[in-house]
Structure formats: structure tokens, C-alpha cells
Amino acid sequence: MAPWLTDWRGRYRGQALAILSPSTTDEVAAVIKLAAKHRVAMVPQGGNSGMVAGATPDASGQSYLLSLRRLNSIEAIDQDVRLVRCGAGVILQNLHDAVSKHGLRFPLTLGGKGSATIGGLISTNAGGTQVLRHGTMRSLVAGIEAVLPDGSIYDGLTPLKKDNRGYDLKHLLIGAEGTLGIVTRATLHLVPALIERAVCWVAVGSPADAYQLLLAAQDECHGMLEGFEILPDAALAHVVKHIPGTRAPLESAAPWHVLIELAKDSADQEAPAQLAERFLATAMGKGLALDAAISANEAQAEAFWKIRDSIAEAERAEGPALQHDISVPVSDMARFIDTESPKIEATYPGTQVIAFGHLGDGNIHYHVKAPHGATAENWYRDFATRISADVYDRVVAYGGSISAEHGIGQAKIAEFARTSEPARLAALRAIKNALDPHGIMNPGKLVPLASAGLDA
């Protein structure tokens, strides 16, 4: 059980009575009925690749891990209406491979696609690198089946365009982190497979220049803009240092880099490479870009994306850091990075801010790295709470969110309670208590409940 009792980052470790591994929705329902009867806590888990310890049990050892990995059937792929129905335990990469054989794709991807499961992605409302064009998981879910806290089965798999029967349980369950029920199956939207794409690596002088480049791309790339990512040169250096097979795409040095993907999935669209070449020539003429490279083939496109997808792994290898998954209005993100990062580094001498991610949707992964030579355990103990609170206070001052796509889990629950307005917390608690009155569904995650808990 040991690998499943620790979160992906290795910062949280819990205990559990056992791991339960049902293979059908009926088996999940039977387990939850027993849990409800005996007031036993259940911690649902998919690929265990989450970033906020939302699938890690607490240290009491009084809960059960409920693994959904055996619910891994891809049941139906409908090419005509572009839908797939599958189990919660399906690994994202396996779904990509399956639908590609039908000339389709599921337009959500992320660095952990080899381990992340559909149920986990739904339960955290995952985003990834293609949100700019296709939205978060919430936009891609057409229907859900779930087991509710009393063991009853909610069947919402049918992909209805209109359904006005009151509260939308589907959207309550998306992003609920398993605190309101266990997602067992889903119907998901698909899009046509790519005909071709162009991935561009662009050197820029600042986040402000990157934002202006984003605005230009949105105006000039005719709905083909699939991804727009930003990363500092330090992040690139860490990837090249720690990830075999990677190298800097450009010979010239630059303080910041942007990764742009233009995708063609319809015959009437322009060739992406041609559009990219024209767009970047204009951007460089306006001083928005310092240098650029356009992928010459699919292997080079994958190599560019491997750099971006490997940043989290490289940062972990580089040393301890506090990771913050934040969002502010898109128009304010460049200002946030430029203005707040030097203040954080000055307040905590020796630290380094590594800000990277989805500039196009205002979501940045804001890492504060420990000073060189710092011992992880001591640094986390002495500085984690103070630095994170400082970062989140600055985010809130911009009208932003302390969790853009990773969720709250247990890692952020105290800060979520501290920084949230009373109305939001009261509503969340009311919903949680109404659907899960015994507090058995993933306790201690997402919802800061002062009075909830398991009966003795």
C-alpha cells in the first residue's frame, strides 16, 4: 500500500485500513452503502498524480482508500456525434490512443497524462495546456455517472443538450474532489483529430511582451490558437539540466520564453506552419519577439512540448520549492509576475520565483524555490505557511484564485478557509452537509468543515 499512501510530491503521508478496488459501479455502490452504514471514511483515488494531496488519507489510519483504477473500460466511441463513454479509471494517455484510431481526439492533455485518470481529472476539473481553445474538464464532460454518499447511483451519462430539472448535479460533482460522491463513468466530448500543427518556441523580453504577443495571436490566428504557455529562462535551464534528451530550442539567450501551438483540424484552415511564419514575422517586426523557431516536424513539436511538460519534474529534482497554482485576470498576469515576484524574493532572501504556465487563461504555476543548501524538511517547517500566505494574499488582492486547476485537497484547505469570503464557505458547507451528512466522503479535503466529522 505504501506507494498509494503518499502524494505525488512526497510532502503528505497518511495511513489506511486497506485499499478497496471495485471493478464495477455496482461494486462501488455496495462499498459506499457499507461505509454509510458503519460511518467509515472513504478516500477515492485514481492515478494518485494530484498536486494538492486530495487523494491522500490522513494519519489516523481509520479510512479506506477506494481505488477506481479497475474501472478502466472504454465502452463506446461515437464518431458521428464525437462522444466517448468510459470508466473513471481510464488513464488519459490510453483514452488519447483509443480515440485517435477513430480520427478523433480528446482535447485535454497535461504532463501526467500517463498516470492521471478520467475520474481524477473530472473530480479536480483539470485544465492542462489546451484550455485556451477547448476549456477545462467542465467544458468537456457531457455526462456523468456517480455513486452518492448513501450508496445510491446517480445516472447522468446521457449527453443532453438541455436539461432544466433544477440543480445540475453533474456540475456539482465536477471539481468536488470526491467530497460529494464517487465518479464512476463519464461521457466526454471529442473533437476532430489534428490534420497538422505548428509548435513555436518564441523568445521574449518580459511577461508584458508575452501578453502583447498573446493578444496579437488571438487576433491573427483565426481560431487555430490551441496553446500559449510562458516560462522563464531558469525553468528551461532546469529542464535541460535534469531531463535527458532535452535541449534549448534557440541558440540565443532570452529572459522569457513562450510556447505557442497552432492547430489545424479542418480542411478549410490555413497550414499552421504558414500562419505561424507570417504571424511571427509580424510580431518580431513589432518588437514583441526576440527570436523564434517553428517545429519542422512532429518530433520537434513533441520535443518543444516535452520541455514544458517536464518543468514540474525538473523543479522537483532541482530542490525544495513551494508550488502555487494561481489565477488572476489574464490582463493582470504579466503585471503580477513582474511586480510581485521581486517583492517575494526580497522578503525571503535567497528564494527564487519560477512562474510558468498557461498565460492564455490567466493560470500560472508560481513556484518559490528554497535558498541553495536549504534542507527541505526544515525550510518547509519554517517558511511554508508564511510564504504561501503571502503569495495568496497578493493573489486575492488582484481578485484572483488560490487554485486555478489543481484543486484544494488538504494542501490548501487552511488557506482556502482563510482567504475565502463567508458566503462561499457557508454555501460549500451547506452542500457538503446536505449530501454527505456523516462526512465519510474524502474527509478533510476541499471543504473546511468546523463541525463535520465521523461519528464515534
Automatic annotation (TrEMBL):
Occurrences of domain FAD-binding PCMH-type (ranges):
12-193
InterPro entries documented for this protein: FAD-bd_oxidored_4_C, FAD-bd_PCMH, FAD-bd_PCMH-like_sf, FAD-bd_PCMH_sub2, FAD-linked_Oxase-like_C, FAD-oxidored/transferase_4, Oxid_FAD_bind_N, Vanillyl_alc_oxidase_C-sub2
Pfam families under this entry?
Answer: FAD-oxidase_C, FAD_binding_4
Can you name the source organism?
Sphingorhabdus pulchriflava
List, separated by semicolons, the cofactors it needs: FAD
Entry similarity comment? Belongs to the FAD-binding oxidoreductase/transferase type 4 family.
What keywords are annotated for this sequence in UniProt?
FAD, Flavoprotein
Question: What is an example of a GO molecular function annotated in this UniProt entry?
Answer: FAD binding
Q: Does the keyword Flavoprotein apply?
A: yes
Instruction: Tell me the protein's name.
Output: FAD-binding oxidoreductase
Protein's GO biological process: respiratory electron transport chain
